[in-house]
Every structure is written in C-alpha cells, then in structure tokens.
Specification:
The complex is a heterodimer of chains A (375) and B (326). Chain A is an alpha/beta fold. Among the domains of chain A are: 12-29 and 65-103 and 134-306, Thiamin diphosphate (ThDP)-binding fold, Pyr/PP domains (Rossmann fold, 3-Layer(aba) Sandwich); 347-375, no CATH class. Chain A has eleven helices and eight strands. In chain A, the strands form two sheets. In chain A, strands 2-1-3-4-8-7 form a six-stranded parallel beta sheet, sandwiched between helices. Chain A has a two-stranded antiparallel ribbon with strand order 5-6. In chain A, helix 1 crosses helix 3. Chain B is an alpha/beta fold and 326 residues long. Chain B folds into two domains: 2-183, Rossmann fold (3-Layer(aba) Sandwich), CATH 3.40.50.970; 196-322, 3-Layer(aba) Sandwich (Rossmann fold), CATH 3.40.50.920. Helix content of chain B is 36%, strand content 18%. Chain B contains twelve helices and 14 strands. In chain B, strand 2 (24-28), helix 2 and strand 3 (53-55) form a beta-alpha-beta unit. Classes of the chains: A alpha/beta (375), B alpha/beta (326). The complex binds thiamine diphosphate and magnesium ion. Thiamine diphosphate (TPP) sits between chains A (95, 143-145, 173-176, 201, 203, 205-207, 267, 271) and B (29, 58, 60, 82, 86, 89).
Amino acid sequence: MSSARTEKGDAPGGVAAPAAQGGPGKGGIAGFSREELHGLLAEMLLYRRFEEKAEEAYAIGKIGGFCHLHIGQEALAAGAIGPLRSDDQVITAYREHTQAIAKGISPRAAMAELFGRADGCSGGRGGSMHLFDPSVGFYGGHGIVGGQIPLGAGLAWAIRYRGGDQICLCFMGDAAVNQGAFLESLNMSAIWRLPIIYVVENNGYGMGTAFPRVSVTEVESRSGACGIPAHTVDGQDVLECYRFFEALAEEVRGGDGPHFVNAVTYRFRGHSMSDPVAGTYRSRKEVESQTKERDPISLLRDRMFEAGLLTPEELQAHDNRAQELCADAVDFAGSSPTPDPATLHDHVYAEINDRGRLFLDGRDAERAATGGAAR
Amino acid sequence: MTEMTYRDALNAAMLQEMDRDDSVFLLGEEVAEYDGAYKVSRGMLERYGERRVVDAPISELGFAGLCVGAAMAGLRPVCEFMTFNFSFLALDQVINSAAKMLYMSNGQIPVPIVFRGPTGAALQLSAQHSQACEVYYAHAPGVKLVAPGTPADAKGLLAAAIRDDDPVAVMEGELLYNVRGEVPDGEHVVPLGVADLKRSGGDVSIITHGKMIHVALQAAGQLAHDGIEADVLDLRSLRPLDVDAILATVARTNRAVYLEEGWPFAGVGAQVASLIQQEAFDDLDAPVARVTQADVPMPYARNLEQLAKPGAKAVVEACRKVLYLA
Ligand SMILES: Cc1ncc(C[n+]2csc(CCOP(=O)(O)OP(=O)(O)O)c2C)c(N)n1
Ligand SMILES: [Mg+2]
C-alpha cells in the first residue's frame, strides 16, 4: 500500500502484493480483500499524481526533452508489475515512469531523474526516457521503438542460464510489434523457452497512427507465428490484470516458456508533452469518452463505492497521501544538485585501461597536462 | 526570393520535384496523415494522395529496404526517417543494399533514393535521440551526403538529391526547422559537391557543415570583436566533398578549424584535417584544430548537455589556438 511505501529496494515491489490466496473474503470484490483493493487504488492514484506533477514541471521547464506520460494506462503498472517478485525483472520503452515506480524506484529518484539531477535513478544522465535501477529489477527506459524487446529476451536468457526462477516482463507499445526485432526476439524466446512475458500496452496508436492503419491483423495474432500463446486482457481493469498476471507469472516461472499479452488500454494525453491530445488522428470526442468511461482509477473507485468498500473520506485520504508523496518527490528533485560537470566522462566505459587513449576529445591530454591520471 | 522556414523550404523542394516527376514519392513514419513528425510534409497528402505520400509502420529496416527495392525498379523514393537515430535500424539496407547495388551489378542497377530527416542533437533528448549520424553514411562508398544549414540550401540540396541517380542522405536538423531565410522562388537546385563561403574573413578558416554553420558564424562574430576575421566555409555536401573550396580558404588564411556536431573519432573533421595536411601542408601555419561533441553519449541533464555540445566558445578558443593567441 502506498502508506507502507518505503524507499527503493526495501519493499518487495512497488505495489504491496495482495495475499496470493486472497479468496472471496467478506467485503471483497472478485477475490480481492478490502485491504488489497485499497492498496491498488492508492498505488494508481500515486501514479496519476506523479504524472500530473511531471506535466506541471514540464510546463514550467523543470523537465526537458521528450516526456511521455502514462496517464490512462496506470492499471498496467499496478496490475502487471504488482504481482511480480522483487527479484523479477522489468524492461520497457520510454513511457515508463509509473512502471519504474511500480517496480520499486522511489518517486523521489524518478522525479529527480526527470529533473536531470544527481539524485535521479540514472544520475541525471538518462532523463524521462531512461530510468534505470537494476537493484530493484528495473532495466529501463528505452527510446528506440522495439529496442527493449531483444534485451528482454536476453534478460530472460540470463535467468535461465543461471538456473534461476525469476521471470522477465517486457513491455512494448502496439506500434513496436511492427519492428523486425519483435519477430526475431519472440522466435528465439520460443525456441529456447525463455521465462518472459511480452506485454503489449495496446493503446491503439503509435504517435498519430491508429494500429489498423499499420496492421491488417490484431495485435493478439502477432505471436502465433512463433508458437507463443497469446492472451488479451482489459488493461483498464486493474483487478483483471492483477489476477491474470499473477497466475501467468507463476506459469512462466514454472517453465511454461514465453507468453504474449495484448493489454487493451488507452493513452489519455498526447503522445509526448510536445504533441496534442487529439487531432486528425483521433477525435476529441473519442478521448473524452475514454477518459470518462474507461479511466482505470475511476473504474476501480466506483466498484469499491458500489460494494461499500470505500468512503469519500478514505478516497480523499489516499489522494492526499499520493499528492504528499509527489509533492515531496518534486521538492526532493528540485533541491537535488545538478550533476557535477567533472563527471561528464564517467560511465562511458566500465574500465579505464592503463595503456592507450580512450577519449579523443582532448580530455586525456588535458588531464595529463594538469598532472591527473589520464583516465 | 521569399522568406520562409527551413521546414517550408524542404517542403517546397519536395513539391517542386514531385510536380515534375511522377516517380518521386515520399514514404516514412507519420509523413502523411500527421503531416510529418516535424511537419515537413504538411499538406502533401492532400496534394498528392495516398499513392505518393505514404505512412509507414515503425519498421525502419523494412521500409528503408522497400524504398531501396523501389529505387532498383526505377522509382525515386524519398525515404524519411523521423530522425536519423532511428535509421540505425535500417543501416543494413543502406550500407549493404543501397550503397553497393550499382557496383555489385556492374552498373546495371542504380539506386536513385533519398534518405532524409534530422540528425544531431536538439534539446535534452538524451543519448539515444541526440546523435550526429553523418559519418556512418559518409563512410560508405556508394552513398552521397548533404547537410543543408539554411533554408535556401535546404530547398536546393534536397531538390538536387532527388534528381541524383545515387543514394543521397539529406541530413537536416530539428533545431533548424524553424530557422527563417530567403529562398529563391521558382526552380532552385544547388548542385552537390559545392561548398559555400558563408563569411569571408581571411585570418582563420572555420570549416563546418549543417547546423553548425550557425555556431561558426556566432564564433566568427565574437572573434571580430577582437579584430580577428574568420572565413566560415559551409561544406554543404560532405560527399562529394568540395576539396577546392577547402584548399582555397586554407591558402588564404593558413589556419583551419573543423567544427562538427559529432564525436571526434573518425569524424568528418578527421577526414578534412587529413586532406588538408596532405594537399596543403605548405600552406599551414598551425596544425588543423577540431571542435566536436565531447567524446561521450549525450547526457540528459541540461548542464552536462551544454558541456558536451560544441559551442561558439570552444570554436573561438580553437581559432585563437591556431592563431597562437591562446
Ligand atoms: C525506431 C524508432 N522509430 C521511431 C521512433 C519515434 N517514435 C517514438 S514513440 C513512437 C510511437 C510508438 O508507439 P507505440 O509503440 O504504440 O507506443 P506508445 O507511444 O503508444 O506507448 C515513435 C514512432 C522511435 N523512438 N524509434
Ligand atoms: Mg501505442
């Protein structure tokens, strides 16, 4: 639950895991206990508020570059990553802020990265599209469409190679299934039975292009050619997602090989902060009806209200808490120092050799002249 | 002459060429319905229809290869990469197919294709989206490469690239699209391989290409305050390379600085410096200096990014160094 949220690495995952056997106890919905439901609601509120803060900060120039918000798709962070173990792995594209938080990166470290500050989870080097923290099993944050798909297969390969029982969850957008690397990766995962779940966050569009304009088949059909079982889930229904991924993760962990999930969702904002919410490619009316009827947070909230499991005061308390955490993240980010200019060349290489010159921009010569090691 | 943006000048070049030749078509991500990610192809779908202005899936390797195949069949594709960073996925088809087809086929199969889009860094787009891609293309025999820095050159060079019978990469700049300038009305074609002296000084030569001409001109302005007058030679075309223009400016100033956006190792400046020392050694009063991006992937943080990018200050310093004033 967000109230029990701890700094990265302390919690088993960003989302407190509902008890696996959370049967249809008194006062639950679909097998989720009251506590579990509150946990998921609080978590999604946190994601929403985080993205709204990022939006605000972008507008006043605190965040630069490309910034892609996950607003509308939060159920997939809570519902797909939530059931994972802390040592399971997640890799994804550039719309990844909430997924990073769900896997255990603190809102502080994520916001500081968006601000380009030294305390960011990538030291300010990566920015919005490149959040990383392997210590919590979050392998980024990738900006080239489809680039993370073979990398995910590689993470899964390493798990199998070492005989581990972790799994890898590899997210991608619907448009990424048209990259050649997608087919190549799925095929290798299938022949080597890698412990990986590919999740397409099918929000219907790649930038301004509706999926049917770039494919004559449905997303779900794309894995069949490689013999990988395909599933479709309602990506706005966090409860459905949670139970589905909880069960699937165990199957894959048990050696069932790769699976492919088409999670149907919707992006409530523009492609990135520099793109319009609606335009020639989708109507304002379409966006409005989706935000009104298919908001994953409202859907859960209303079910909880109807079942008498949530009071307006409780909702307010969750929201206050989410806003506090996000305001705190913004404060933290704002007061974190900018990266030290002297570190510009750090981490280009893992090993600086004794012989030879690695950097050709005159830096080594400068260092040698000032008596520093030519590192 | 009409004042227009670099973006509109590129658009004008495509209209000019598509109006005169039905075999020219534009294909790329978001080029049709969305008017282009950077609005370079605004209005083109409406004008030419879906046959000639085509939205591609995000399949760079596939659609670049498809365009190469269409060029082998005699069409003249303009293949747009949303940015050249994404063209790395397509490099196999550029290098292994487009660049070699004419040679392998003993001259039977020309590949008259244009690959175009922005190269280099914009603002805080981080490591995977901020790469100067010139050398990957210029390295391969069989590929030509131009990098217009002004609206007039954008129109003229893109038109020439489309008319050329070889693969030509036209490297633009995201930060250039809004730059305004005078562009000749009517048919305007700037031949490949002709550099342009953007500023005439005489004390030192700043040689550069693409977006960096603006940094060079800024540096030249600062140097002028100290009474140093710089030539700014805009190569415009990296392959074919206007060697005569390079040698002429060096003969005049005896000092050269190459400025580029990319990394130093095997950069454009390395090639030009090698050429100058081979062909104009006796003209030189100082070793050729180079100004490049720092030898690191582009960092996101604003302060680090500023530090990594080549700026006017570094160019001024390099000029002073070759003048032995530093
Ligand atoms: C190889 C490559 N081509 C193009 C782009 C530019 N681009 C960034 S996101 C995007 C759309 C991707 O859509 P989708 O995969 O559906 O993900 P979504 O943005 O909807 O989450 C495009 C074309 C890129 N980053 N990488
Ligand atoms: Mg999409």
